[in-house]
Design a protein that fits this description.
Creatine Amidinohydrolase; 13 strands; 4-stranded antiparallel sheet; alpha+beta; single chain
C-alpha cells in the first residue's frame, strides 16, 4: 500500500532532507586522494548527529554504517572499508537520514581527484577521461529529467522510461536488479521505482500528490549484470565495469515536484 504523506509529514521530511543534503555535501568535499572510505563514514555520522538527526542506514537490520561507499565497479550498498581513494577512482556515496520519525535518502557519484596535483592521471588516457566525465554527466541528466516528469497524474513508468531512454541512449546499461522506492516512515516503502520500463506504462502506479519517493539512477558503463560480494552487502558489476548512482528524495505535489534532499 502506498503511503500518502500529510502536509506536516512532508514538512518534516523537508527538514530531514535539508540535513541530509548538508551532510552529503560535507562528505563529498572530503572525498580526495588518501582519504579512506571508513573516514567518510565516521564524518557522515558525526555530521548527522550534530544536526540532531540519526543515520537512517544504521536502522537497517545488520547494517552498522551511516553511509554506503561504492567505489569503481561496486554498484551500491558498499560497506565502508579502510581502502584509501586513489586518483581517478569513482566514488558513489549513498546516505540516509532519520529525522522526526521520517527517512530521506540521497546518493551522488564523483571522480576522485588529487586537489594538490595538476598532473594528468597517468593510467587513464584523455579519451577515457572524457568518457568517464560523460558517464557521470549522463547519470546526473537522467536523474534531473526523471524528477521533472514526477508529477501528479503521470505514472511511475514515466520516471522509469525517462531514466532508461537517457542511460541506454548514451550507450550505458541500467541495472535491472535494483530500483528506486517509496520512502517515509520506512526507508523502503511502496511503490518500487525502476530505472527501466518493462511493462505497459499504464500498468505502473499513478503518481499522486503526497507521495514521497526516492528516484535512483543505478547504471553501469558496461553490461547490466551484477553480483553480491562475499561481504553480503556490496553489489558489483559482473564485467568489472565502472558503475554510478545518483539519487534524490522528492515529494509529488499538485504542481512542480518538490526535491526534499536539497
Amino acid at each position: 500500500m502506498i503511503d500518502i504523506k500529510t502536509k506536516e509529514e512532508i514538512e518534516k521530511m523537508t527538514e530531514g532532507g535539508r540535513i541530509l543534503a548538508q551532510v552529503l555535501a560535507e562528505v563529498l568535499r572530503n572525498v580526495r586522494v588518501g582519504v579512506s572510505e571508513i573516514e567518510l563514514d565516521k564524518l557522515a555520522e558525526e555530521e548527522i548527529l550534530r544536526r540532531g538527526a540519526k543515520p537512517a542506514f544504521k536502522k537497517v537490520k545488520n547494517y552498522t554504517n551511516a553511509i554506503c561507499v561504492s567505489t569503481n565497479n561496486a554498484v551500491v550498498h558498499g560497506i565502508p572499508t579502510k581502502y584509501k581513494f586513489k586518483e581517478g577512482d569513482l566514488a558513489g556515496i549513498d546516505c540516509g537520514v532519520y529525522f522526526k520519525g521520517l527517512n530521506t535518502d540521497m546518493a551522488e557519484t564523483l571522480r576522485v581527484k588529487n586537489q594538490k596535483s595538476k598532473k594528468v592521471i597517468p593510467s587513464v588516457s584523455k579519451n577515457q577521461k572524457d568518457e568517464i566525465d560523460k558517464f557521470l554527466e549522463t547519470g546526473e541528466r537522467a536523474l534531473n529529467e526523471a524528477i521533472k516528469v514526477a508529477r501528479a497524474g503521470n505514472r511511475v513508468g514515466h520516471i522509469s522510461k525517462t531514466i532508461q531512454d537517457i542511460v541506454e541512449g548514451s550507450g550505458y546499461s541500467v541495472v535491472r536488479n535494483l530500483v528506486g522506492h517509496g520512502i517515509g516512515k520506512k526507508l523502503h516503502e511502496e511503490p518500487e521505482v525502476p530505472g527501466f520500463l518493462d511493462t505497459d506504462i499504464n500498468r505502473t502506479p499513478t503518481l499522486k500528490a503526497g507521495m514521497t519517493i526516492a528516484i535512483e539512477v543505478i547504471y553501469n558503463m558496461g553490461g547490466s549484470d551484477v553480483f553480491l560480494s562475499k561481504d553480503g552487502w556490496t553489489i558489483k558489476t559482473r564485467d568489472k565495469s565502472l558503475s554510478g548512482v545518483f539519487e534524490r528524495t522528492i515529494a509529488i505535489t499538485q504542481n512542480e515536484p518538490l526535491i526534499l534532499t536539497k
